[in-house]
Amino acid sequence: FPVRSPPTGTNRHISPSANVLCSRCHLPGCGKLYKSYNMVIELSTQDTLEYKYHPVPSRTLRFKVKAANDAHLLLSANANPSEVDPVVEIFIGGWSNQKSAIRRDRTKPDKANVDTPDILNGGEFRGFWINYQGGLIEVGKENESAPFISFVDPNPVQVAYFGICTGYGAAGEWIIEDGTKISTYDNLEYKYLPTPRVALDINVRCNHNAHIALTSGANDTSPMYEILLGGWENTASAIRYNKEKPDKVRVDTPNLLTSSDHKYFRISWNNGLVKVENKERVILEWCDPNPFAVTHFGVRTAWGSTGYWHIEHVKDAEIKKIG
């Protein structure tokens, strides 16, 4: 489980815990097994208005598929990528169930191509995982830690959606990691779904103005989301887009924060829905009509406030459980 070195003054530890053309034929319509670790971050922020950025959890998609051959997956930044949008295609059991491959932007030659005889079975489900973190794409079998195919992408796709399809004589039944069941037909048409949702559990202790940024890089980016908790002298909270006013949503939250003990919040983002909640209620919620792939978060305090933070990445299976 790769962990970047923490900034000075921080402590980190890890605790277990639309149809498109298929590039194989160009005819229309035709982790490592990471052991569900949570990353816990403890840090302090000064009265500087400067965000400190950290990567969001590594992304891993786990699924089972029952198909005789040609289980195809596509990773993209949006829900209906055009023919010119950057994508990563993964072919499992292609070439009559003899090979698997990774392809970039529907273009040959393949970035990786390996022999995988009889990797699929039309009579039983076979489990796989795909890890995509930064530019590293890895594909492996369920209960095996080593990938059977991988590719390091020098220009990573900001993955927010995945598509699935089958073809070349094979229909497929799929079970995605959250239990979602999907059928695909012998038509090479991708069905798109959001990638596994991610969230942060935050416990923060400060007088006021605990700010969280969600970005697509390890710095301020455009676009970006800002969540302002206990602003305006601890009387209101808001969600802001690209650091611009007016706020997308602002609500009164008197005495939301305190310097005497940590206050708990869950920050989540799913297909553009940015939400802040605690154990009692949803505090803030705004849906971005043009969502982007969040890869990093930043925290800061300001306006006379210093903060002490305990931040934990939430496992996908725990998204619906608060507290």
UniProtKB/TrEMBL annotation:
Q: According to its UniProt record, what is one Pfam family this protein matches? A: Methyltransf_FA
Write down the superkingdom of origin: Eukaryota
**Where is the secretion signal located?**
none
Q: What residues does the Farnesoic acid O-methyl transferase domain cover? A: 48-178, 186-313
Q: What is this protein called?
A: Farnesoic acid O-methyl transferase domain-containing protein
